[in-house]
Amino acid sequence: MQAETEAIDPYNGLRTTQTTLPSRAYWDEADYRRDLESIWYRNWLMVCREADIAQPHAFRVFTVGTQQILVLRDESGTLRAFHNTCRHRGSQLCRESEGRLKARLLTCPYHAWSYSLSGELVRVPSKTLPAGFDKADYPLYPVALSLWRGFVFVNLDEAASGSAADSFDPGSGDLANWPLEELATGHVLRKVMNCNWKIFWENFNECLHCPGVHKNLSNLVPIYGRGLMARHDDPEWALHADNDAPEYAGGLRTGAETWSEDGRVHGPMFETLSEAERAAGQTYATHLPSMFIVGHVDYVRTVRLLPLGPEQTELTAEWLFPAKALTSESADLENIISFGTRVLEEDAAVCELNQKGLHSRRHSTGVLMPEEYDLYRFHEWVRGQHAAHGVTSTSAENAR
């Protein structure tokens, strides 16, 4: 009888007690190296937008764990990615984090080995070369690169397969109606959070904290004020199944249009959105482990994560607008940006609070509440990544 009830009851919540990941997973150096080896070095990671490296010879350097990745645009306009490492004795190639190369060759600042922008070794300044030495055997170490809707992703796995588009969370919203490729950056927020990267994702995946932490957001999205993310998070959802009020159905409060201080749009709205997308006011797409993107009716937000250590994570948020909004005198973009910034600052503060408490010698694991079903799903994803790549806590001791 219970099985029949569960089959017809689309309640989202967890039905059995589940424990969290062990506390050491958030602060232990070996567990951090394990995450790098099995997750960050083996998945597609968003690093920037194509517009950030728009011109030939433009480049950016990104650090993922211990790895430095160089992304550049060659003379033909093709984007390429390499390890920022010379094949001679391993020197760093580009010392700046971004810029434009001054020549058509990428020259190591140590011993002047020079490479074409497609990665081939073309010049070695030694007076003579050892027997059997062939420059063709020493190209730059390539890194897999994938483009999606104007965003640049890299994958450090030498056997990388598929594409960034293939690896979005299956439950992600469809952003096909948003003109992502055409949008321009209106604001960037960079912040170093003193917490493990997994804690940020856990916070993202539940709204039990919303009533106490996000007062303004809970007012804008009334269902968040109930500590829920969606209608079927409520075990008694059926009592309100016919009630489309936002506190039961989700979406923005009555009369609100977008995420902003006053809930109003402050620039041109996207004309290509469906009525359902306009009514929802927010459409999320998630790409573990490095980013999520949110489509609103008048702008798009992206949040990118990079791990800096067991207890530090870099967050980069961008607000993307139609180009005409950035030049319009009537577009009050600060009304939008300040609201989203406050939400992220509130999230960062409680993530850091969570990190501090995990060092208790008595706290080995936590327990999940029914509303934290997406945390359980995230934990299962982490466990699955570790299992799939055979990286144990012991083998991670020697991981780089």
Give a short overview.
The protein is of the alpha+beta class. It has 10 helices and 17 strands.
Walkthrough of the structure:
The protein is an alpha+beta fold and 400 residues long. It has two domains: 2-21 and 173-394, Naphthalene 1,2-dioxygenase Alpha Subunit, Chain A, domain 1 (Alpha-Beta Complex); 45-155, Rieske [2Fe-2S] iron-sulphur domain (Rieske Iron-sulfur Protein), CATH 2.102.10. The chain is built from ten helices and 17 strands. It has a five-stranded antiparallel beta sheet. A four-stranded antiparallel beta sheet has the order 5-4-3-6, with no helix packed on it. Strands 2-11-10 form a three-stranded antiparallel beta sheet, with no helix packed on it. Mean pLDDT is 94; it is low at 1-7 and 393-400.
Summarize this structure as a short list of keywords or feature phrases:
globular; 23% helix; 22% strand; iron; Rieske Iron-sulfur Protein; disordered C terminus; five-stranded antiparallel sheet; alpha+beta; disordered N terminus; Naphthalene 1,2-dioxygenase Alpha Subunit, Chain A, domain 1; 400 residues; oxidoreductase; four-stranded antiparallel sheet
Number of DSSP strand runs: 17
Lateral strand order in the biggest sheet: 12-16-15-14-13
Mean pLDDT: 94
For this structure, the quaternary state is single chain
The proportion of residues in beta strands is: 15-25%
> The biggest beta sheet, please?
5 strands, antiparallel
| CATH fold-level label of the largest domain | Naphthalene 1,2-dioxygenase Alpha Subunit, Chain A, domain 1
Q: Please state the overall shape, judged from the principal axes of the Cα atoms.
A: globular
